[in-house]
């Protein structure tokens, strides 16, 4: 597992489901991912990366239309 | 604009490569130390196509040549935004990334594709387009672009070596897991 750019998010980034202990039938994984995303959101704002990310996301929309290929 | 293209054949199935790809910058890879963090920002599966779409933020730490650092006032830490698409029907992994850091001065757009060659081999292709945006002499822009192409070439060699280790470790880990499952079943019988 790779590290997070925010050390404070590393603990929530270490999800059990990646170790094969999770149960895909319940929401455990989704909850863990949400906790990690919440932690990350704060870290990205603090580092002022959130704005850059939003711009990058706008730019990458064209890739979605190429690679998601909805019929 | 300069283009860096590279292609590698891995002697592993597409299924193995596409799974190990998520561990590429984990502890099994000691060759890509310049990637210091990987954060998954979003991840969804398209219910219609089964395509897994993932957004990641890749944080790198690599010192730039001194003249380049002086010119661009760069810090050693840079960030890349990556969007990837795993298409299980077509058996492709496509990863598109571009630089977040210094994006007013340079534009780096990279596309990586993993495709099966046959049941046992996978083709990796990498294509990076590097454009210096800063004003000034063309010669300086050329130098900046060349420096980045050199960096891509160096990292590509390390990237291949590192990923080979990850693929070997991943194959071993899956084999051990299967063995454990089988011995578990024998105990039950």
TrEMBL record, chain A:
Q: Where is this region: Disordered?
A: 1-25
Q: Which InterPro entries match?
A: MDM35_apoptosis
Q: Which UniProt keywords apply?
A: Disulfide bond
Pfam family name, one: UPF0203
Q: Which domain of life is it from?
A: Eukaryota
Q: Which family does it belong to?
A: Belongs to the TRIAP1/MDM35 family.
Protein name in the entry: Uncharacterized protein
Native species of this protein? Apiospora kogelbergensis
Recall the taxonomic lineage recorded for the source organism.
Answer: Eukaryota, Fungi, Dikarya, Ascomycota, Pezizomycotina
Automatic annotation (TrEMBL), chain B:
A Gene Ontology term for the protein's cellular component? mitochondrial intermembrane space
Cross-referenced Pfam families: PRELI (PF04707)
Superkingdom field: Eukaryota
**Under which name does UniProt file this protein?**
MSF1
* Stored InterPro entries: PRELI/MSF1_dom, Slowmo/Ups
Q: Where is the PRELI/MSF1 domain?
A: 1-175
Species, as recorded: Apiospora kogelbergensis
